[in-house]
Design goal:
Blueprint lengths: L10 H29 L27 H31 L5 H11 L4 H8 L3 H15 L2
Helix pairs in contact: 1-2, 3-5, 4-5
């Protein structure tokens, strides 16, 4: 990583990001779930009773006692930098997808992004592993333009 969150894009980095793309997207999606819950008020603080005997009892102050809210906060703060790094890497790959030309190349790229192994892609497309590696190298060259 360079200055101000910029990422150095090399062929090796790009290959690694394509390999990791599937789980990075899943991790980003998972990390965003608690945020949505906070936004729609389902995990914000304890509810305060407005009526009945509960309304007359003393209210907690100072420390948040809702364990779910505390867990959401932990995930938000601990994962934030890591998630932002994943988002930058995923965005870099996404920005370059349109550079890829050729039916084989596009098919192999999308299968790699879906998390398929080189062997599974070769089997599905009835191509040798050597051909799949050559297609993958073409993809990387096109994406580095």
């Amino acid at each position: 990583m360079g200055k101000q969150g910029q990422i150095k894009v090399t062929k090796e980095n790009l290959l690694q990001w394509i390999k990791n793309y599937h789980w990075m997207v899943a991790t980003i999606e998972e990390a965003r779930k608690p945020v949505a819950k906070v936004d729609n008020n389902s995990y914000i603080g304890a509810k305060t009773a407005m009526y009945g005997i509960e309304a007359t009892l003393p209210k907690a102050s100072g420390v948040e006692s809702n364990p779910v809210f505390i867990e959401v906060q932990r995930r938000l703060y601990i994962n934030n930098k890591r998630i932002q790094e994943y988002e930058r890497k995923v965005a870099e790959v996404q920005k370059r997808i349109s550079f890829v030309e050729g039916d084989r190349e596009v098919e192999v790229l999308h299968r790699l992004l879906d998390g398929d192994s080189m062997r599974a892609i070769g089997k599905h497309m009835s191509l040798s592993s050597t051909t799949i590696f050559r297609v993958r190298n073409n993809i990387l060259s096109q994406m580095m333009k």
